[in-house]
Amino acid sequence: MKYQKPSILRFDHRDISIxxxxxxxxxxxxxxxxxxxxxxxxxTTSKELTREIFxxxxxxxxxxxxxxxxxxILIEQFRPGAIRSNDTPWLLEFVAGMFAxxxxxxxxxxxxxxxxxxxxxSLDDIHYVMKxxxxxxxxSECIHLYVANVNSENIGGVYGLPEEGExxxxxxxxxxxxxxxxxxxxxxxxxxxxxxxxxxxxxKKLRINEFNGS
Length: 214
Hints:
Layout: E1 16-26, E2 30-38, E3 49-55, E4 59-66, E5 71-78, E6 90-93, E7 95-98, H1 105-117, E8 126-133, E9 142-149, E10 157-159, E11 168-174, H2 175-183, H3 190-212
Parallel strand pairs: 4-9
Antiparallel strand pairs: 1-2, 2-3, 4-5, 4-7, 5-6, 5-11, 8-9, 10-11
Helix pairs in contact: 2-3
């Protein structure tokens, strides 16, 4: 489906002039420096701006939800980006992962569910939720969010890929317990917060669909 700009927004890509793009760092992640100008609301063109963009690729986040038992599967792992915070850098999160070459979002979701939580998920189990830009002021990363119907019984353990330095502990908790942790500020990463807030608005529909077998 072709993208259509929401009528409330005034500008789109046609109102940007990109003068140069220079790769400033080319490691596991990338940093590109853009020189650009854009149309302004008063009808003029902005001055030439220089902005660095963190290019880390796109990612998929999967919410494994047991609709019958109203339980969630969360994973716990170390995150170096959280070291500077005053809280522990071991975070509670949903299953997530980056795209490999020629992977679709659902391919990523299925692969990461197995690698991080030993969950076997089929295409019929997965439902699209939304996609969003994680921090568009400085990175191009787009998050693709999905929910999956799972059976949480006998789920648990430590998983992850040792060659990628992963050491992931799997938790099974009730939806209400997860919301309590969210209210207490114990869940602090954006994707999990957004997913839990969406789930709180939609869990009744998911449970009805599950019980009806649809």
